[in-house]
Structure formats: C-alpha cells, structure tokens
Fold this sequence. Notes:
Helices cover about 55% and strands about 0% of the residues. The longest helix has 15 residues, at about 40-55. The protein is built from 4 helices and no strands. It has one domain (about 1-80): ACP-like (Non-ribosomal Peptide Synthetase Peptidyl Carrier Protein, Chain A), CATH 1.10.1200.10. The protein is an all-alpha fold and about 80 residues long.
Amino acid sequence: MTELVEKLKVQIIELLNLEDIEPKDIVSSEPLFGDGLGLDSIDALELIVLLEKEYGIKISDPNDGKRVFSSIDSIAQFITENQK
C-alpha cells in the first residue's frame, strides 16, 4: 500500500499541476480538500477521471466520493478494495 500511496502523490501533483509541492510534502493522512492541500470541486472531477483511467474504478455514489477523497490514504484503500 505504501507504493500505491507514493504513486498517488506523484499522479495528483502531475494531474493537478501542483508546482511547488513534492510528494514528500504531502502527508497521506491529511485532508485533500479545505485545510489540507486545498483542492476544490474541479480537482475532485480530475481525481474521479484518474481513478477511472488508471485503475478502472468508477465512483457511482456521490456520498462515496466524499469518503474516498478525504485523504490519499483513503484513496489508496478504496483502490485496493475495488481494483479488479
């Protein structure tokens, strides 16, 4: 799971063009939205597309999205539980 967390950090930085952030700067248990990385709803859509393209996982229930995208750890756990 540690490898997946590190891979997700790199993917998120590249996908969202977070220029002044390196993977080591991101605490995987901190929130992605609000106080943490400060991502917004457009970033959430980008993350949904990332899950679909890279991992073949769709989030069908909007309530799941809030839980899944709460932190990088939660995204990694969701991928681990749902990847085919």
